[in-house]
Design a protein that fits this description.
Blueprint lengths: L4 E5 L3 E6 L8 H5 L19 H8 L7 E5 L3
Antiparallel strand pairs: 1-2, 2-3
Length: 73
C-alpha cells in the first residue's frame, strides 16, 4: 500500500496523495485545475496554485486521499 502514496511539493506545502483511498470524485481537478489535472503526468503540479489555494482545495477531498503538510523551512 505504501507504494501508492505520492508527494508533491511547492517548497511551502506538500500534497500527499493516497491512490487506494481515491474515490475519483473530481472535486480536486474541477476546483483547482491548475494544480490537479488528471490528463497529465504527473497529475499534481503544486506550482499551479498558491499554497493557500492548495490547502483549501485539499480540505475538500471527500475520501481523504489528498492531504497536505507544511514543509519545514
Amino acid at each position: 500500500m505504501a507504494d501508492n502514496i505520492k508527494e508533491y511539493s511547492n517548497g511551502d506545502v506538500t500534497i500527499i496523495w493516497q491512490a487506494e483511498k481515491c474515490q475519483h470524485s473530481e472535486k480536486c481537478w474541477r476546483g483547482l485545475p491548475g494544480v490537479f489535472n488528471y490528463k497529465e503526468r504527473p497529475w499534481i503540479k503544486p506550482e499551479g496554485g498558491t499554497s493557500e489555494e492548495i490547502i483549501e482545495q485539499v480540505k475538500k477531498c471527500p475520501s481523504g486521499a489528498l492531504t497536505y503538510r507544511m514543509t519545514s523551512k
